[in-house]
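Hey, I'm writing a tutorial for new members on how sequence and structure tokens pair up, and I'd like a real worked example in the thread rather than a made-up one. If someone can provide the structure for the chain below, I'll link this post from the tutorial.
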Amino acid sequence: MNRILKCVIFIALMFAMTNVMLNAQTAAPAPNGHAQPYCDPMSCPPGQNPGSPEAAQSPGTVVPPHTKLLGPIRISSGVSTGNLIKKVQPAYPHGTTASGLVTLRVVIDVHGNVVSITPESGPEALFKAAAAAVWKWQYRPYVLNGQPVAVDTTVNVMFGR
């Protein structure tokens, strides 16, 4: 049984490392030389350096070096919805007739705070309003092997008239 558990853990780690390497290969380099897969300059909070490896970690957080190399762990939108503890409804932008579903890629730090947002799909006129609401969302911290971890997920925001 112990051998099977070790094999499962090894396969899971290999899968996670493969995903991180694929994300790093497809990310556009930032001016500071780091990959920038998570934060659109339009939606980054003031003072956030989205291209740094520590972008998904809050200041002052002590994390083992190997955790920083892995970056945020990708989770499903269903898991993230289950850990949502504060949800702010978006304000409908004045002067637009657009409606529909806005999909955002969101990184949540080890404290459950949203640290970066990238629009993925939906009416472009609603991106800023959706991001403004999601910045205020709060999540229960995600724990892996007894340690809080940063996560990467997808969030859907619906606008209807």
